[in-house]
Design a protein that fits this description.
The protein is an all-beta fold and about 110 residues long. The chain has one domain: Sandwich (Immunoglobulin-like), CATH 2.60.40. The protein has no helices and eight strands. The strands form two sheets. Strands 1-3-6-5 form a four-stranded mixed sheet, with no helix packed on it. The protein starts with a strand and ends with a strand.
Amino acid sequence: MQDLTITQVDNTKSLFTPLGSRIRILLKENPTTGYRWKLHKYDSGIIRLQSDEFVAQQGTLIGGSGIRQLCFLAATVGRATIELRTMREWEKPESVLDTFVITINVERNIP
């Protein structure tokens, strides 16, 4: 089964994926600035979070930028919204620098 890979250019889109597929969200991040992508909310009844990790870019020095990678499993047919926010955890919610929202439509059969 093919994975659905989502990047920043897909922000605010509504995408379709078959039941049982993996959904990978890849967003640029530089954690040394203090700003990190955090999963704000998602529909855990439709999709299941499998992993959330920072992957440093190859060839960059310590403290360099990389990719925040979140992987989900399309577990149940339905519509799920995923919202991520980039912010400094120790600051107030008003300090959100950016928001990423995607709608995932999980279907039994996709032609």
